[in-house]
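Can't paste images in this forum, so I'm doing it all in text. The chain is below; anyone willing to post the predicted structure tokens underneath?
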Amino acid sequence: MSWLLDFLALLGRGLISACRSLGEITIFAVVGVSAILRPPFQFRQFVRHFVEIAYFSLPVVALTAFFTGMVLALQSFTGFSRFNAESAIASVVVLSVTRELGPVLAALMVAGRIGAAMAAEIGTMRVTDQIDALTTLSTDPMKYLVAPRLLAGTLAMPLLVVVADILGVAGGFLIGTVKLDFVPQLYLQRTFDVLEMVDVLSGLAKAAVFGFVIALMGAWCGYTSKGGAQGVGQATTRAVVMASILILALDYALTEVFFSR
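Text version of the structure:
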């Protein structure tokens, strides 16, 4: 019986730790959002982080979306040809990219790049006492470090997803017309016939939520890091893992909200 008690104790400690972390993240998010709404706002920091997220993440997001659209069209043709349903390829590509693949893949790429960078930067400031120095200089660390990142992530991700949607559909169009011999005009007509505004807007709404989550996880993991260089490395890894898991979980929840009947 002792092994069962040990297992239940371990399970209980894990559950309590998870609930404590969830509460800390929620409080951190509320304080960060309130710091955005209260003047003064660190506009220069916001611009720096917005450019870093929206501009410098553009190449990896663009390449990921373009090749994803190409692979999606090719794999759809392989499957649909068994049922003589090749005409549905354009519909599958545009709906899959705008609703799911564009926002999710772009967010995962940004989480790996920006989430890790945020956690490393803020974590280094934490372990070298620079955050305490900001407090000593009467500068609110939440307003200076966290609030601009949260707002930049929330606003930059939808722009990246717009680019991802366009290039993902373009990749499918390229494979469909060049390799699979679809008529370009018919492929485009089928694409625009099936696409609705809710498909695009749902993807952009997901992108805004994902951007907030990426910035939140990066900032929180860095802000709470400790233990020197090793602690910063652990915070960086934790930020990417937690952001990726939350992106996938929230993707399902938001899909239920937008498309459940």
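The chain has nine helices and no strands. Residues 130 and 136 are 10 Å apart (CA to CA).
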